[in-house]
Amino acid sequence: MASVMEFASIPFTGGDAACHFVGLSKPLSKQILIGFSLPTPRYCVVNDASKASRDAGLAEMGFPMIVKASSEGERIGLDDRSIVRSCDELAEAVERIVSTYAQPALVEEFMPGREFTIGVIDGAQPQVLPILEILLNGESTYSYAAKVGDAAEEVCPAVLSAEEAAEMGRLAVCAGRAIGCRDYWRVDFRADARGAPLILEVNTLPGLQPGYSDVTKKAGPAGMPCGAIVRGMMDSTRQRIIRLSKSGERAGSS
Asked: Sign of dihedral through CA atoms 174, 178, 184, 189?
């Protein structure tokens, strides 16, 4: 849809087609994050389960690891088998992803710490919404089943020091900018064993369903109705269109 809007020179909210393409590809997103010196777990892309145990990059990471689909959203492909602690489990998880989703597997070093998600409303001064913590209640990962079944408990705002919250907010803004997001986006984090936050992925088109989507759940703690989030997005879009009109560029191009 973003491509169609760009082709027709129709202004729209959110990132352009290239941004969404990059955001959906976890390996490509991680390459960009690393290029901008932003913290993200180490990873390898694996196409062949039979060769996984011989991959030098995986051997360097060591177990445990987490195996994900490389180009899916909504936690699709994640379940209790995704965290692997042996070569046999690794091969099985990679084969499951490759055969089920017809795409390479992304194998990441597993981060054992807390999990967070942060929404950002763009503008001259980006607004970082209150940080939402996902409590896994004994589970090791926030799986697809837990997400769609609302099984995980959520705390917003997350209990963090002012310094921790400010640093995570800074990383969320920088990550969205690096990927090419506009107007609004969401960034998912997982902490390492020392408590340092690492960027899991950037959601270039987060949901906006009132009271359900992660971005709108942060509206209450932010002291703003959901409509204010939408107005913030629209203000960012309007300012961008004004800048483009002054520079003579096509409205849907950037």
From this structure: negative
Residues sharing a CB contact under 8 Å with residue 244, sequence separation 6 or more, in sequence order: 250, 251, 253, 254
Whether pLDDT at 118 is above 80: yes
131 pLDDT more than 60: yes
**How far lies 191's CA from each of 7, 133, 194, 225, in Å?**
40, 11, 7, 30
Q: Domains along the chain?
A: 1-41+111-254 (3.30.470.20), 42-110 (3.30.1490.20)
- Average the pLDDT over 161-178 and give the result: 97
| Phi, psi of 201, deg, nearest 5 | -165, 165
Check: CB of residue 97 under 8 Å from CB of residue 45.
no
Distance CA 141, CA 131 (A): 19
- Residue 215 is predicted with a pLDDT of 86
Angle at which helix 162-179 crosses helix 17-24, to 10 degrees, equals 120
Peptide bond into 64 cis (omega under 30): yes
**d(C-alpha 133, C-alpha 14), whole Å:** 24
Cβ atoms of 139 and 147 closer than 8 Å: no
CB of 158 closer than 8 Å to CB of 177: no
Q: What confidence score (pLDDT) does residue 15 get?
A: 94
* CA distance linking residue 16 with residue 20, whole number of Å: 7
Q: What is the dihedral of CA 29, 201, 227, 146, to 10 degrees?
A: 140
Confidence of residue 88 (pLDDT cuts 50, 70, 90): very high
Spatial separation of the C-alpha atoms in residues 208 and 58, rounded to whole Å:
37
Closest among 168, 177, 71, 170 to 113, alpha carbons compared? 168
The Cα–Cα gap between 147 and 203 comes to 15
